[in-house]
Specification:
Helices cover 32% and strands 21% of the residues. The chain has 287 residues and is of the alpha/beta class.
């Protein structure tokens, strides 16, 4: 190989980068231009841990504290956030060249694939490139306005959606991993932690969801899924532990009824747990 044939280090200034130089990032998509201070990704290693419930209530809690908040449902194949917010009948509107997100409150707006489906039961059968195109639209073609926080609810695992949002979204404050206390869930969450680390995003911490339950009959605490698994994982991986959220029948009912739990009574211990997680998150982001 001659000197002319030696691969050159990319200086980041090339356009189109036809050299295919290993390690060159110029072929990666550009960050979407959106006015947001902090993008927070919500991930889980497996399904069934209540990640979307956490996303909805966390976004609502931020909104209740006066932060202009966007909530992006990126579970393209199984969007559930409109159901949890009582917005299933809404369809997206276009004004000018921008898609209008659905306003939940004066400080909270949401976008979801569910708003684009002709029927609730319509499946989305897409490959990776189509998902990336949709994510680009959800970021750049939506009239979010200036946002303090954009909370992104991702599908379980570490697939296309997580990689795409990591490449496209600006000002990513980091990722939160949601787990339940039992060993199987904690094992899967450790993979999500490693994934976040490998793609160069800050681990904002772990939330342990469904962490104990108060029996509605005897009022004793029951550890249905074990105890402190998320806290132990946070200690093991050296990431913040944002807090525990109990398994609460009222929270389940709230999601089914489309009325986020966080808008209910402030004296409820579960409400206080969600609010404490939100405050811990803000403290870590603003460090």
């Amino acid at each position: 190989m001659t000197d002319k044939q030696q691969p050159q280090e990319c200086d980041g200034q090339c356009e189109g980068c036809s050299s295919k130089t290993e390690g060159c990032d110029s072929n990666l998509p550009k960050k979407v231009d959106i006015d947001v201070k902090h993008v927070v990704l919500i991930l889980s290693g497996k399904g069934g841990v209540g990640k979307s419930t956490v996303s909805v209530n966390l976004a609502y809690a931020l909104s209740n504290h006066g932060f202009k908040t966007g909530l992006m449902d990126l579970d393209i194949h199984g969007p559930s956030i409109p159901k949890m917010l009582g917005l299933e009948e809404h369809k997206l509107q276009i004004m000018g060249e921008k898609i209008q997100p659905v306003n939940v409150t004066g400080t909270l707006a949401v976008i979801s694939m569910a708003f684009l489906l002709p029927e609730r039961s319509t499946p989305v059968i897409w490959r990776g490139p189509m998902k990336m195109a949709a994510i680009q639209q959800f970021l750049g073609d939506v009239n979010w306005g200036p946002l303090d926080f954009l909370v992104v609810d991702l599908p379980p695992g570490t697939g296309d959606e997580a990689l795409s949002i990591a490449q496209l979204a600006p000002n990513i404050a980091g990722a939160i991993i949601v787990t339940t206390p039992q060993d199987v869930s904690v094992l899967d969450s450790s993979k999500a932690l490693k994934f976040v680390e490998q793609i160069g995003i800050k681990n904002l911490g772990i939330i342990e969801n469904m962490s104990g339950m108060v029996c509605p009959h005897c009022h004793e605490a029951i550890d249905l899924f074990g105890k402190d698994g998320g806290k132990k994982a946070a200690e093991e991986f050296g990431v913040p532990f944002l807090g525990s959220i109990p398994l609460d029948i009222e929270m389940r009912k709230a999601g089914d009824e489309g009325k986020p739990f966080i808008i209910r009574r402030a004296e409820n211990p579960t409400w206080q747990a969600v609010d404490a997680v939100m405050e811990n998150l803000i403290e870590i982001i603003e460090e």
